Amino acid sequence: MGTDATWPLRRLDLRGDREDPRSRLPRASEEQVAQVRRETDEVLAAVRAEGDTAVRRYTERFDGFGGDPRLEPGALDAALASTPADLREALERAADQIRWFHERCRPPDWEDTRGGARMGVRHAPIGRVGVYVPGGQAPLVSTALMTIVPARVAGVDEVVLATPPRPDGTPDPGILAAAAVAGGVDQAFRMGGAQAIGALAYGTESVPPCDKIVGPGAAHTAEAKQQVAMDGVCGIDLLAGVTEVAIIADDHADPRHVAADLVAQAEHDPLATAMLVTPSADLAQRVEHALADEVAGTKHVERVRTALEGQGTAVLVDDLDHAVDVTNVWGPEHLEIQTGDDEAVAARVRAAGTVFIGGCSPVSLGDYAAGPNHTLPTGGTARFTGGLTTSDFLVPVNWVAYDRDALAELAPVVDALGAAEDLPAHARAAAVRLDKEDPGE
């Protein structure tokens, strides 16, 4: 039953203000980011120097388990065998939908001929990929599907799973069951956070070094992925850190739907960002009334309260065009559109991890089973990168095959550009194949 209470969101009034708003929009503070960076530096340095010893030490500190990080063979199959029938059916249906989408995401190889030369691109599966599945504040069972399914679709040679243990040393059984449904893994380890990313990147006595690491995580996990990528140790998919949602809505939206979606995002993490962008002050007020009921009735009320008090924001804009401009600058991980003309608004979006169009397309659908991956760019990085797809597990290999006639056709270009760059050996490498005099002589 509803009440007269409200849950006030921070108001940011941008009506009549077309200045760049990104510095005023909610996200983690520089102080929070700096602290996470310092703490992650310490963990990664220790894992690189000490290997398994450091992994065990930090796993015991953060997860309460200091034993062997290796997971026993057969653990995935055992977890699947004990999974309740309804959950197993849900996992299988979700995996089927995710697989369907990612099969269609696979980029095609191609070959063509021009000027007598053949060339093209083929896509080679990555050798060894580490998939990280969070299990801290919430065991993200669905992440096992979202990372392993596209890896298997791409044909990755070896998939290595890392997921945090519980104090008794066992990972969440739902995560292991999902990994089995997704196609299984070649090795599995009970470790989480920055220490898991360090182990997957650098390798330890137990953990093989991976060519690429994929999967979302909290702040320390995301920071660790960024650091190992900057070191050139291995590749990563994208910066998938603390979660966020922006909802573009007008008076056509149901305030209960908007409130429920804000709470669903805040449920993930105390640092999660939940933002409403609307030209309607009346809708913002009605959402705040609906939020009071949603917050009061949610299970993880303290986590939700902390997130909404810290980052919950209602942004008032001039119109829906202005709303799109604001979200394009902010680059949200998730963007919902609940307006009188959802498709037209969605067509103008150019920066969002995934766009959820219409009142019946909540983010939670995408989190679990819609099809597109839920490993998405956060922190504004959606302005220049997209979500995890099959392409992230493949390396595009360009190839060329020239015969003598085709080489002769382009040799003058090589001559001219080699001279312009003062690299005469480049021109010589073409000329010697044509029995010509060295152009430098």
TrEMBL record:
Species annotation: Egibacter rhizosphaerae
Binding positions for substrate per the UniProt entry: T243, Q265, H268, H334, D367, E421, H426
InterPro entries cross-referenced by the UniProt entry: Ald_DH/histidinol_DH, Histidinol_DH_monofunct, Hstdl_DH
Pfam families tied to this protein: Histidinol_dh (PF00815)
Entry protein name: Histidinol dehydrogenase
Active site: E333 (proton acceptor), H334 (proton acceptor)
One cellular-component annotation, GO: cytosol
Ligand binding (Zn(2+)): Q265, H268, D367, H426
Its job: Catalyzes the sequential NAD-dependent oxidations of L-histidinol to L-histidinaldehyde and then to L-histidine.
Cofactor dependence: Zn(2+)
One GO MF term: metal ion binding
UniProt keywords, alphabetically: Metal-binding, Oxidoreductase, Zinc
Signal sequence, start to end: none
Family: Belongs to the histidinol dehydrogenase family.
Cofactor, how bound (note): Binds 1 zinc ion per subunit.
GO BP annotations listed: L-histidine biosynthetic process
Transmembrane segments: none
Record pathway: Amino-acid biosynthesis; L-histidine biosynthesis; L-histidine from 5-phospho-alpha-D-ribose 1-diphosphate: step 9/9
